[in-house]
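Researcher: I've been going back and forth with a colleague about how Recombinase family protein might be arranged in three dimensions. Neither of us has a model we trust, so I'd like an independent prediction. The organism is Aromatoleum bremense, in case that matters for your notes. Sequence below.
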Amino acid sequence: MNAPVTRKRCAVYCRVSTDERLDQSFNSIDAQREAGQAFIASQRTEGWIPVVDDYDDGGFSGGNMDRPALKRLLADIDAGKVDIVVVYKIDRLTRNLTDFSKMVDLFDQRGVSFSAVTQQINSATSMGRLMLNILLSFAQFEREVTGERIRDKIAASKAKGMWMGGTPPLGYDVNQRQLVINEAEAEIVRGIWQRFVELRSTTELARELNRKGITTKAWTTVDGTFRPGRPITKQNLYKTLRNPLYLGMISHKGKTFPGQHEPILDQALWDQAQAILAVEAGLRASQTMTRHDNESILRGLLFAPNGDRMLPTATKKKTGKRYRYYLPYSDKKLGRGTNPFGIVPAGQIEALVLEQVKSALQSPEMIQSVWDEVQKLDATAQEPFVVLAMRNLSAVWNELFPEERCRLVRLLITKVQLRDDGIDIEWHPTGWSALMKELAPNSIGAELREREMEAMA
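Model: Here is an independent structure prediction for Recombinase family protein. You can compare it with whatever you and your colleague have in mind.
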């Protein structure tokens, strides 16, 4: 008697890169699916049966794994619902060698094999895997060459002054893939340039534009999606004021070419604005420190009373003295004074938080709370160790290196909320337990702490 045939559940995966012609009664997805189903039917004697679900990705690139049907297929494989994956061609599954390696690893872990209808390849054999990798290498090469061709075409088109798509700039509409002046918006654009020349400040100009309700470009995409305008920020203004497109030029990789669209601005007004921007840039370079190191220990942790995130910044005066602050995010985007809370001296607020951490290390209530959490994670832990570790750390807290205190603050704290009358600190749920592990006897953290204490003695 013949041995019983084991049933193998087969899933057909289909993909096309473009959504064109998918609305036709019979399209590429349908053709791939029918070929896959026919291939499964031809293997019925081997126990192959199709699964009920369809895995179709129409209009998705094979260059990445961000595809809904593929994610669903991988989830079903992980759940043990699929034994064999069938595709029309190998590049329907992916065109990326790295992504394919990840998929094959998942297939191996779940005992799943892979077959391509037109290429007669089976990943269950070593020869099949070799052929898969060879074919996929060519598929990835084809994708990269296609990308190079597209980039070359964009560069050549921009050199001819053609608009190559994207969000239309304020002052222009897109008609048959060409920029056409929108007269109402063009008047706003000219007004922005004129006011900037008069005010000589992007901060004041951003405030004025927002008071008037002037926003960035509101437009409707080709597929009918409406994109509303947003409040104009200082960053928007810098980008707009430096955009040579308003002079009738097209820029690409630092070069500008005469455009096929009409200019909104004249050269004299453009030159005036650029001269002011050059002076403003020089002042910012000499007065503002934009690069922040580990001394900004509350970066990402500090919030204003109204919930606005506080960003570290620093100013260097003519005397050479440097002052550090935390600035509300809205002030950075829309100009100083947008958030009524204002700036906070960095040294004062950081000292207050560091003092709170030190107090927590000494607090009986916090010690008891930490001990309770440590017990949940480690039943063998001993209470004297937790108490002694926290007390020893508090004793040397002020002498720790700034980098180490910064690291510990980030380990223990998730948020520092400013109030009009003080601060609220949100402790990290597992931060204290993680710290106790570092300070456990014979651990690297405990040895380093002992060395620091010996060096200070």
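Researcher: What would you highlight for our discussion?
Model: I'd start with this: Residues 126-159 form the longest helix (34 residues). After that, consider the following. The mean pLDDT is 79.
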